[in-house]
Amino acid sequence: MTPFLAPELRLNIARFVDRPTLLALRLASQDWLGPAQVMLFQEFRVSLLKRPIQHILRFLESSSHLRTYVTHLYLFGEGWHALPTLRVEDLFMLLNLFPSIRSVTIDLLEVVTASSAVAEDLVVPSAAQLRVVLSRLTMDKATLNILLTRISVTELHIPTLRLAIADSEPLQHFFHLEMFKFIRILNRRARRHAPGSPDGLEDF
Description:
This is F-box domain-containing protein. It comes from Steccherinum ochraceum. The chain is α/β, with parallel strands linked by helices. The chain folds into two domains: 1-40; 42-203, Leucine-rich repeat, LRR (right-handed beta-alpha superhelix) (Alpha-Beta Horseshoe). It is built from eight helices and nine strands. The strands form two sheets. The chain has a seven-stranded mixed sheet. Strands 3-5 form a two-stranded parallel sheet. α1 (7-14) crosses α3 (30-40) and α2 (19-28) runs antiparallel to α3. The radius of gyration is 20 Å and the shape is elongated.
């Protein structure tokens, strides 16, 4: 007779095994299927240099059984000199596909808006609280404003961010309180274009 293990104990065991073991556990029994899939699919990693975002959206729309397990989304490129483009509209569509999403990392991408007038209903209602990491990105004022005012970002980390700001534009016009209304933890280092500096950027 197979000994009984509580579901929470199976899940705790699954946290400490490697990916090949998790794949084997999925096939071991129906009792192990759930815990194994939770750990296998909790992080969804996508290279936008290799896969167009529309292909990812179509795959996820047809894989509702996997989307429920995802708690962390990681979107990335592969170098400063050829940054793939991520539209903020597509990012919001992605986030709305994950009902349990809690953390988002965006690395080595250029984040843009498709038009100057973004729909007012472009929000992420499924994400009550999010930890967001913006790493080695390029974006402008409008895009950052949309990200921080239409997502409930409670923890924001910005290791490196290149902001497209006019040299004459005061920083107090760029940042405003509405952008930080949900944030409880903030860790940032941002840079703006500065033609006179050695690398064309300066910290602020």
